[in-house]
Design a protein that fits this description.
flat; two-stranded antiparallel sheet; mainly alpha; Sec10_HB; 2 strands; about 75% helix; transport
Length: about 850
């Protein structure tokens, strides 16, 4: 039996959980009462079947819960049953089914608590002790086995180390043997290689000697007599050995030519050498004749095989012919016999692209024809490329010759008929297409031919620079291209102007205009600036710029060409809108002449005055119409300039920016070109102001009455409405300036309205100087000034508004009493001079002796 201390140490060492259970069981044992003997008797019956532990129980997936269950499963059910019975007999709560417990229930509960809480503790404690003893025995068994295994492992490890040491020594010796063997093998191999080299050299020398003997023999045969090829060896007449015969003939020919060359360079007096030289010349002549005959025979065989599409025979002949001038004759012969280079085919090309003779081809039809033709050429070259790859030893060389023939023979002959360069002196008429037709044809041909070059490059053309060949085809056209582009733009502009003049003339004739001035005005109206026409100018220029992009590969060249083409557009737009503005100015000038014609003096009859007034009305209507026409012209001028500026920003700038200074120079060109139009517009706007002010003055003179500002003092309430003249002037200005508000924008509008407002202010001041004012007339004047001020406020010109506000202050000089005049302008001394002039217009100026009073009040102004 183990002691308590040994048991506790074993329990703590192996299973802390079991130790804890034993401690709990011990404490419960101390609290048991007298019923312990009965329960222990039950547990004794259970302990009669002890649990036997084995090492195998701890192998595999060990679970402590399973071990503990095996120990206590036979004991705990009885405990659980007793607990269940106790629970049924006594209850667990003070409150049963919602009622308070009675005293009897409490007594029973106290009696139940006196019984032990864990009756099976003795049986469990005995069982746990027995299990701990078995676990201790198992630990000792395991320790013994571990010790035996350690000793056995140590012995095996020592034995293994000895074996490894012996193996290392053996391997070291084996490596040394292999090294000696490798060195020996290397030495033997080097010796064998040297022997092989000697043998190979000897065999090559023997073979060379044998070939030299044969070559000397064949050379003697060719050197026998000039032109005698009948006594040659069978080799040279055997069709089955043509390749060998060709190779030998080429070697003999090369040797003989080199020997003749050496003899010619060296001066030797020995006759034997001269004889030998003459003999080799005979051989060379015979060899040349034989090679020519053999080459012709092979070419004939090649042609026959080509017609029968026997690619193997063609390949055999091509391989043999490659020994003659690297096969150049065969390649050129093959390419020259292609049907695509026949004269009939090339004539059909011209008919396909240009159409029937005598018809005028269009760029679209030429584009379609070139697309079809070049596609056909590409497909044909692609088919030939498949044959060439199979037949020729060097297909890239043959493709190079084929594509070169296409780009130097077939394409140029077509372009020669398509691109007929017109004369810049005697330009073709627009009915015949003009210069623009040639340029469009050139662009279409250049673009499609470059596409053909790219397609042929994709099919294969060896080392041929097909793009360079394409550029060389168009070089004569590209050298002076920009001159034709500028001439074409000028021709288009001239034709458009003639068309517009013809339309204007036709419109004038259809309306039946009579009279020189009237007809001129109508012509001017019909030839107003058209934004559509300017858009057409831009479209022409945009098309020309696209051609510049196409023909100019270098940025500097492109920028120069673009600037030249843009200059044409700027000149055209500047000239067109300047002429349009000048025509609109002419109508203003004609209206001014009409006004001057009907200005009459004061001593005329009433009938003449009435006729003059009617004529003045007509002149005013003509002036208003001319004003509107000029404003429309200015508006369209601004729109046209905006279109050109937008075109420059969107399409031109990006082409000029890569070149230093090009963009700035073009901006300067544009500003210079537009300066003429700006000058014409400025002069026309000044004339518009003159026209408006002339009509204002006419209305004021005709409508303003002396009684408007000096109404009789008849007791009738004064009229606070604006005068009729004011109403007419404001109505006229509102009507006529509507066109100016629409046509002008920004600073132009502000400057025009400011100038007009200043002129209106000055004109009104001069007009009012003609009248005398009493207080009621002063009120009427102030009402007119308010009306004028409200109208000019729409000008958004602060300086003009200020002037009319000061006019309102000046009008007070007619309203206040004479003694109040001194204090009227204390806050505004700047208008005292104008105030003095106004004060002199008071009807009481003399009677009230205002001159003396003013001189004493404002001595500096007198």
């Amino acid at each position: 039996m183990l002691t308590s201390s040994s048991l506790n140490s074993s329990e703590e060492l192996f299973y802390p959980e079991v130790t804890s259970l034993i401690l709990v069981a011990s404490r419960m044992k101390e609290s048991k009462d007298g019923k312990k003997a009965d329960r222990f008797s039950k547990s004794s019956s259970t302990d009669s079947y002890p649990l036997v532990l084995d090492i195998d129980d701890f192998k595999g997936d060990f679970s402590f819960d399973a071990l503990f269950g095996n120990l206590v499963n036979e004991l705990l059910p009885s405990y659980l049953e007793e607990e269940a019975d106790a629970s049924e007999g006594h209850g667990g709560n003070d409150m049963q089914n919602g009622h308070m417990r009675t005293a009897s229930d409490a007594g029973r509960s106290a009696q139940g608590l006196s019984s032990p809480l864990f009756p099976e503790v003795d049986a469990l404690l005995s069982l746990f002790k027995n299990s701990c003893m078995q676990l201790t025995d198992l630990r000792e068994q395991i320790d013994g086995k571990l010790y035996s295994l350690k000793k056995e492992v140590a012995a095996q490890d020592s034995k293994h180390r000895k074996t490894l040491s012996q193996l290392e020594k053996g391997v070291d010796g084996l490596f040394g043997s292999f090294a000696r063997l490798d060195s020996r093998i290397s030495s033997v191999g080097q010796t064998a290689a040297k022997i092989g080299d000697h043998l190979q050299s000897a065999d090559a020398q023997r073979e060379t000697a044998s070939q030299t003997i044969d070559l000397i023999k064949y050379l003697m045969e060719f050197n026998s007599s000039p032109g005698d090829l009948m006594e040659l060896s069978p080799l040279f007449s055997d069709d089955s050995r043509v390749a060998e015969a060709a190779s030998i003939a080429q070697k003999l020919r090369s040797f003989a030519e080199e020997d003749i060359g050496r003899q010619g360079m060296a001066v030797s007096p020995v006759v034997g050498n001269a004889t030998a030289s003459r003999g080799l010349e005979v051989a060379v002549a015979n060899l040349q004749e034989y090679c020519n005959e053999l080459e012709n025979r092979l070419l004939a065989k090649f042609d026959a095989a080509s017609q029968r599409r026997e690619l193997s025979t063609m390949a055999e002949c091509a391989k043999i012919l490659s020994q003659f001038n690297r096969g150049t004759s065969a390649m050129q012969h093959y390419v020259g016999l292609r049907p695509m280079f026949d004269v009939e085919v090339m004539n059909e090309d011209a008919r396909l692209v240009l159409g029937d003779p005598g018809s005028q081809p269009s760029p679209s039809s030429v584009l379609h024809g070139l697309s079809s033709l070049y596609k056909e050429i590409t497909d044909t070259v692609r088919k030939d490329a498949a044959t060439i790859t199979v037949v020729f030893p060097s297909p890239n060389d043959v493709m190079s010759i084929l594509v070169q023939r296409v780009m130097e023979d077939r394409v140029p002959k077509l372009l020669e008929k398509l691109l007929v360069k017109p004369s810049l002196v005697n330009q073709p008429s627009m009915e015949d297409g003009g210069l623009i037709l040639y340029l469009r044809m050139l662009a279409v041909a250049y673009e499609k031919t470059n596409e053909l070059a790219r397609d042929l490059r994709g099919v294969g053309c060896g080392d041929l620079d097909v793009e360079g060949l394409t550029e060389s085809l168009f070089l004569p056209h590209k050298d002076i291209y920009i001159e034709y582009e500028q001439a074409s733009l000028r021709q288009l502009y001239k034709a458009k102007m003639e068309e517009l003049r013809a339309e204007s003339q036709q419109s004038s004739e259809s309306t039946g205009t009579i009279g020189r001035s009237k007809g001129a005005s109508m012509a001017s109206f019909q030839q107003q600036i058209s934004v559509t026409v300017v858009t057409e100018f831009v479209r022409w220029n945009e098309e020309a710029i696209s051609r510049c992009n196409l023909f100019s590969s270098q940025p500097a060249t492109l920028a120069a060409n673009v600037r030249a083409v843009l200059t044409c557009l700027l000149d055209q737009v500047s000239l067109y809108i300047t002429e349009g503005l000048e025509r609109a100015r002419d109508s203003l000038t004609e209206a001014a002449a009409l006004r001057e014609r009907f200005v009459l003096g004061t001593s005329v009859s009433r009938r003449v005055a009435a006729a003059a007034a009617s004529a003045a009305e007509a002149a005013a209507a003509a002036g208003e119409s001319s004003f509107r026409s000029f404003m429309v012209a200015v508006q369209r001028c601004g729109s046209s300039v905006a279109i050109v500026q937008q075109y420059f920003a969107n399409s031109i700038s990006r082409l000029l920016l890569p070149v230093d200074g090009a963009h700035a120079a073009s901006c300067e060109d544009m500003a210079t070109a537009m300066s003429n139009a700006e000058g014409a517009a400025y002069k026309g706007l000044q004339q518009c102001i003159e026209t408006v002010m002339a009509e204002v003055e006419r209305l004021l003179s005709a409508e303003q009455k002396a009684t408007d500002y000096r109404s009789p003092d008849d007791g009738i309430a004064p009229d606070h409405r604006p005068t009729n003249a004011c109403t007419r002037v404001v109505a006229y200005l509102s009507r006529v300036l509507e066109a100016a508000f629409t046509a002008l924008e920004g600073l132009n509008k502000q400057a025009f309205l400011t100038e007009l407002g200043n002129r209106l202010h000055k004109g009104l001041l001069n007009h009012w100087q003609k009248f005398t004012f009493n207080p009621s007339g002063g009120l009427r004047l102030k009402r007119d000034i308010i009306e004028y001020g409200e109208f000019v406020r729409s000008f958004n010109a602060p300086s003009v508004d200020e002037k009319f506000e000061l006019l309102g202050i000046l009008a007070n000089v007619f309203i206040v009493a004479p003694e109040s005049l001194s204090s009227l302008f204390e806050g505004t001394p700047s208008i005292r001079k104008d105030a003095q002039r106004f004060i002199q217009l008071r009807d009481d100026y003399k009677s009230a002796k205002l001159a003396a009073k003013l001189s004493s009040l404002w001595p500096s102004s007198s």
